[in-house]
């Protein structure tokens, strides 16, 4: 493993890092964290691999960190390297691989240890490592405690390194025990999340190593992870609301709820497009940690020769799922062929909709003109010789394939969906934007370019030049700057970190409006006036929101009173409960503070002297 001198700090012995040439001493090492390495290296895996490669190529020591339990991890790593997706210089550090190759020695009180050996266990499955045939895991159940399942994980020498028990009916719902080679229980956890955080702390130690969490699942359990000398970043790779929802008021996407709820716990939150960053700020405010940084690409040095490009070749790349609307791409091909254009469509990707899409090609009579390639390892090569990339998604982040198409001179034609296409494509200059769902307009736009080769070639050249913005060197520089700014921000004073607000009283007026009294506890610092104050109502079930600048009746350092209009919360669905939060701007940062009460709070309605209903 490699040891680096980073300033005055030496990277600890628990972690392997790449050794770039040249190594810039002012670049702190960076870990790219994701859940696992996908089998076909697409999607999140592709992004993580490219980012790690970009950091390494630009002089920053890097590594990829994963948590998934994969008995064939080494085969997966070998495949990633052999396909040229990742340099062999960049380590992939996996939780299970780490403990299967290292002993775990620590002192623990025996009172925290549950003896699971007292049960009789029935084995259900025994996965092995295919590269050497060693036992990876045993999976067992017991009839003595209903709903209790146990998984034991093994080192290659046959010793157990982890016991993981899940009990649906028991008092202890989850119990994870790390085990030394000698068979001693060394650490105990009540959740996998706590165990993963502990391991990441072990890797980082007390050194200056920064962390980028790409996986939204990993981000959900790493939001609370902290290290004194590490800055922690996460990335929104897709829309923060459910597909088709208003970004300012719609229900939140399930995968991002935890990250949004704990947004102040991140040193950096990045968005792939400026539009999404602006929408996020409009909805949640600017906590001072929000950045726009694109995903990097490996752009070709020269625009591919137009004589080697088949302008009638149209390409789709992505998952074959409902939200990608691949059926509409097929109908566009049908419409173009019906109009006399000899186009073909190559579909690269897999998904649950493949069978129905193949049926559609037969129904439309274009089955000989549409090719399903599955997961294709040579996407960039195919884009270099294709005329168009066609995207018909309901929503996007900033699709990597769109940038790769531009960097190959392949003209992107995309529905104008949130987010990405409109930020990345300048309509009729670096590509074509189509109103969402307008198949007829897509047919017309592509037909127009097929009839005008000079215009098509001009767009191809412009797209190729525009892709410079996404080169790995430029993206890497933005990340280095973002981490530098995050470290500087840590040296400042966060006045809002210890502030809380609680409900004191609600008065219902005769006209239906509400007067809400709120107590403020903690030190705010700075100055807060009417212009720096707001209220947010959020539906408990729908997660829809309403933002208001309510009438401020009373304000002082210990509390305030606001009047909410009688139509506040009109978005409420099925009589759901509403959560009230206060937005405060302090020293150029915004804080969203949930208004709550004591756990022992009781509410009693009564009539005021004016005949209004109040609560105490």
From TrEMBL:
Tell me the ranges covered by the Glycosyl transferase family domain, including all copies.
305-465
Task: Report which superkingdom the organism of origin falls in.
Answer: Bacteria
Q: Which Gene3D superfamilies match?
A: Glycogen Phosphorylase B
The record, for InterPro entries, names: Glyco_trans_1
Protein keywords: Glycosyltransferase, Transferase
GO terms, molecular function: poly(glycerol-phosphate) alpha-glucosyltransferase activity
EC annotation?
A: 2.4.1.52
Q: Which PANTHER family match?
A: GLYCOSYLTRANSFERASE
Protein name according to UniProt = Poly(Glycerol-phosphate) alpha-glucosyltransferase
- Organism name: Paeniglutamicibacter cryotolerans
């Amino acid at each position: 493993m490699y040891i680096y001198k980073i300033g005055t700090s030496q990277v600890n012995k628990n972690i392997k890092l790449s050794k770039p040439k040249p190594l810039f001493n002012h670049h702190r090492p960076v870990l790219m964290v994701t859940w696992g390495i996908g089998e076909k290296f697409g999607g999140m895996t592709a992004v993580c691999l490219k980012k790690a490669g970009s950091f390494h190529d630009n002089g920053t020591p890097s590594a990829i960190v994963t948590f998934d339990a994969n008995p064939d991890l080494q085969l997966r790593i070998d495949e990633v390297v052999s396909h040229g997706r990742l340099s062999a210089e960049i380590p992939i550090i996996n939780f299970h691989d780490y403990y299967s190759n290292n002993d775990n020695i620590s002192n623990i009180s025996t009172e925290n240890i549950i003896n699971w050996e007292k049960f009789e266990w029935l084995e259900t499955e025994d996965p092995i490592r295919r590269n050497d045939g060693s036992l990876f895991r045993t999976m067992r159940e017991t009839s003595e405690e209903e709903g209790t399942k146990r998984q034991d994980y093994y080192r290659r020498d046959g010793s157990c390194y982890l016991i993981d028990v899940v009990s649906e009916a028991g008092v202890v719902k989850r119990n994870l025990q790390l085990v030394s080679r000698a068979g001693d229980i060394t650490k105990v956890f009540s959740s996998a999340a706590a165990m993963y955080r502990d391991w990441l702390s072990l890797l980082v130690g007390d050194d200056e190593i920064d962390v980028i969490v790409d996986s939204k699942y990993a981000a959900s359990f790493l939001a609370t992870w902290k290290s004194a000398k590490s800055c922690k970043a996460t990335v929104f790779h897709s829309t923060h609301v459910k597909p088709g929802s208003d970004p300012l008021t719609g229900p939140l996407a399930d995968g991002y709820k935890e990250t949004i709820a704990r947004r102040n716990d991140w040193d950096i939150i990045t968005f792939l497009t400026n539009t999404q960053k602006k929408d996020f700020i409009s909805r949640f405010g600017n906590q001072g940690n929000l950045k726009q940084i694109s995903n990097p690409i490996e752009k070709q040095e020269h625009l591919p020769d137009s004589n080697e490009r088949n302008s009638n070749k149209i390409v789709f790349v992505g998952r074959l799922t409902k939200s990608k609307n691949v059926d509409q791409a097929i109908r566009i091909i049908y419409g173009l062929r019906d109009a006399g254009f000899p186009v073909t469509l190559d579909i690269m990707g897999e998904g649950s909709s493949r069978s129905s899409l193949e049926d559609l090609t037969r129904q439309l009579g274009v089955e000989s003109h549409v090719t399903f390639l599955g997961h294709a390892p040579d996407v960039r090569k195919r884009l270099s010789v294709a005329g168009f990339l066609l995207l018909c998604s309901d929503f996007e982040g900033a699709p990597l394939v769109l940038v790769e198409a531009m960097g190959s001179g392949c003209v992107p034609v995309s529905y104008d969906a949130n987010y990405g296409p409109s930020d990345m494509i300048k309509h009729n200059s670096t590509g074509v934007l189509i109103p969402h769902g307008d198949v007829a307009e897509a047919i017309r736009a592509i037909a127009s370019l097929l009839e005008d080769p000079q215009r098509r070639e001009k767009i191809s050249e412009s797209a190729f030049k525009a892709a410079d913005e996404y080169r790995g060197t430029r993206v890497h520089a933005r990340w280095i700057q973002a981490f530098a700014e995050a470290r500087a921000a840590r040296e400042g004073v966060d006045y809002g970190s210890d502030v809380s607000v609680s409900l004191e009283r609600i008065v219902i007026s005769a006209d239906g409006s509400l007067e809400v009294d709120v107590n403020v506890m903690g030190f705010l610092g700075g100055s807060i006036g009417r212009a720096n104050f707001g209220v947010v109502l959020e539906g408990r079930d729908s997660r829809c929101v309403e933002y208001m600048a309510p009438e401020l009746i009373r304000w002082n350092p210990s509390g305030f009173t606001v009047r909410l209009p009688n139509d506040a919360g009109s978005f409420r669905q099925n009589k759901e409960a509403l959560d009230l939060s206060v937005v405060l701007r302090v020293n150029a940062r915004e804080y969203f503070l949930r208004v709550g009460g004591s756990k022992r709070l009781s509410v009693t309605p009564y009539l005021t002297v004016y005949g209004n209903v109040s609560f105490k």
